[in-house]
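The material for today's practical consists of a large collection of protein records. Backbone structure tokens are a discrete shorthand for how the chain folds in space. An example says more than a description, so a record of this kind follows:
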Amino acid sequence: MGMEFLLWILAVILVVSGIVALFRRQVLWGVVLIIVGLLVGPGGVSIFT
């Protein structure tokens, strides 16, 4: 259970939340959540290291 694994889970939760927000017509909030999720995710882990 490394830090990268926890960040990856957090990223998945953020992206899923963003998609749910899009379906609820909360487009801006959804887009922000998805972008933050992608930044935090596996491709963006380097931001924190």
